[in-house]
Amino acid sequence: MHYKFIAPKCVKSSFNSSFKISWPCTIISIVIPTHNRPQALDRSLASIFNQLDDSMKCKFQIIVVNDGSHTSYEQQKDCFSKSVVFIDVHPGRGVSNARNVGAKFASGKWILFLDDDDEFKYGYLKKVLTIVESGDGNLFDFLWSSVQENSYSDGRCIGRKLIKYHDLDYNRDRIKEKSISVGASYGFMVRRSIFENLDGFDTSFSIAEDTEFIVRLLTLKARPKLISTVGVIKHQHNQGRLSENFMKYSSSLVYEKIFLLHSDFFRREPQLYASLLYWSAKVHFESGNFLFGDACVRCLLKLIFVRFIKVCILMKSLIQIRSRQFNKDHD
Prior knowledge:
It is a single chain. This protein is α/β, with parallel strands linked by helices. It is 45% helix and 21% strand. The chain has helices spanning 38-49, 54-57, 74-80, 95-104, 124-133, 172-179, 192-197, 209-219, 242-251, 254-261, 263-268, 270-286, 290-329, and strands spanning 2-6, 28-34, 60-67, 85-90, 110-113, 119-120, 142-153, 156-163, 189-191, 224-236. Strands 1, 2, 3, 4, 5, 6, 7, 8, 9 and 10 form a 10-stranded mixed beta sheet that branches. Strand 7 (142-153) and strand 8 form a beta hairpin.
């Protein structure tokens, strides 16, 4: 695998062992992996530049990683060469590796991810910049936003869905529980030092790599934050039946792999375990994989039963304590 890069002429390139590009004043580095979708990339980049005013431009670094595409990106390179770092990776090794390569070239304190067929909602970049520049930037390690999901079939939009995360800043446990369902395309931003400490996304995962990464973030006690407003418009093309979309997750048993890989974490976090178990069961049932779907349900029931027994034991202990206190008061 080798890299071919095009850095903006106004930026000094210094390619040392850490692959960093010197980009003055950068606060947030935006990493966009792309594969054979130059026209979609145009829309993604336009959604960035349309909301960067003169005071913001120097604070954002934009990195596009072309993951082994056969389609030409020369037009995009010519058009955006003054403001975007283009990196060609050949041969391509998948989205996890592409994001990791982009992160190696990042110079911002934060890394914000965007897929090449999605776009940032207008105002989102100013919102995240304001947050990290304020005192709130010291109170969290990763964040995500609500998203709008547009589905297409044969080039025609057939539906829109809002995936809304309500403001839960008052409840840190609920934020942790919600974070397990977040994807890297959900306006996801992470502190670069932590991303590097975790060695980025696990490239052995071709799907659900973002779920596995967030589990590692939470294992590290990274602090989550959510933005309730829509930050990203996702464009889902060639949508078939729901069962077809879930099949690759079910057949690969990717969630079971995550459970095994991080068994200690899920043992300590039964609520997160139950949340991901429920999703895994849904994926299997929608795919017609009833054997593993039933297995997930049994695990869920066992988890619920164990917690119920623990609650009963706790209630019994409290009643006994209260009874002893009552008897003592009336002796």
